[in-house]
């Protein structure tokens, strides 16, 4: 099996402090890849030693001059990546060796397309298991994954599609529609990533689930005809 080259791109929002745990997960993986943190400010001093130690293990960069906004930050990092493939992960994501093995197998099997993972929540509750089932149903029925599931795409394809549209919120949902409308396969790797359930705990499962579903429907109405950058207008926002 070939070993495609990857850069893991992790956007860092204001006050984001969960990324060191993801960094530990990535450093533990026995695979070659680079890591780029896309931020709008320097790494906090309290975490600087973590980056220094990580850089001794694999290529790790903290870019702090990105324009504000997750889409702009990820596009900036993607532009400087030197790998064939890009893997976009949210900072509160957790990955395992099985996650990466599934990714490598998926991109080797289907080199063209947008690859994503099944989503697992870190709160062991029947409510969150129901949410996981809903995510899988959405992806299988409509082929519409969201960014918290991780997006892997060839750098050349990402560039040709114009990157993430500068839409807030929903740049991930919009990009999935762009890929779909460009005729690219939307493929689940079969592996899983784990994400935080913090907002469900803090604000209530029912309220958050309802908000997400309503926003997803609203975004789909606006995004369903999106095309690559030269053919679209980013001025329309949900």
Summarize the structure in words.
By secondary structure, the chain is of the alpha/beta class. It has a single domain (6-231), classed as Spore Coat Polysaccharide Biosynthesis Protein SpsA, Chain A (Alpha-Beta Complex), CATH 3.90.550. The chain has helices at residues 19-27, 48-55, 70-80, 97-109, 126-142, 155-160, 171-181, 198-203, 205-223, and strands spanning 6-11, 34-38, 60-63, 85-88, 114-121, 151-154, 186-195. The protein has a seven-stranded mixed beta sheet. Strand 2 (34-38), helix 2 and strand 3 (60-63) form a beta-alpha-beta unit. The radius of gyration is 17 Å and the shape is globular. The termini are far apart. 36% of the residues are buried.
Offer a few descriptive terms.
single chain; disordered C terminus; 7-stranded mixed beta sheet; Spore Coat Polysaccharide Biosynthesis Protein SpsA, Chain A
Query: CA-to-CA gap between the ends?
Result: 43 Å
Q: How would you characterize the largest beta sheet?
A: 7 strands, mixed
Number of strands: 7
- The strand line-up of the biggest sheet is 3-2-1-4-6-5-7
Poorly predicted runs: 231-238
CATH C-level: Alpha Beta
Structural class: alpha/beta
Beta-strand content bin: 15-25%
| CATH homologous superfamily assignment | Spore Coat Polysaccharide Biosynthesis Protein SpsA, Chain A
User: Mean pLDDT score, rounded?
Assistant: 86
Q: What radius of gyration results from the CA coordinates? A: 17 Å
